[in-house]
Amino acid sequence: LAETPPLPAGTYLVTAIVGAVIASHDQIVCAAFNVPGHNDGVFGTAGNPGTGFVYGTATMTDTLHVTAGQQIRLGCNSFNYGLGTYASDAVVEAVPVAYVN
Q1: What are phi and psi of 31, to 5 degrees?
Q2: Nearest Cα to Cα of residue 34 among 91, 86, 92, 89
Q3: What is the pLDDT of residue 101?
Q4: With contact defined as beta carbons under 8 Å apart, do 9 and 67 qualify?
């Protein structure tokens, strides 16, 4: 849905916001990742417990460690694929933070 440009190595505070149209009795779940196919288990969700379609916003905040040149990407899935739920807009922001061992 959204991604950063290639980043310098470091630890980043990642904030993401996703706008979606959510079908009846469906939900989206979103995560940020820097390695394709892998996330660290921090998710943002939005759902529709009622009937019809609703607009929803999923937000999440996470920290990710990246190596030089990696991008932070944002991806989402629907719990009930095929009902018509879709993500329409997304923003991902990565701010470098100090990391002390």
Answers
A1: -150, 150
A2: 92
A3: 59
A4: yes
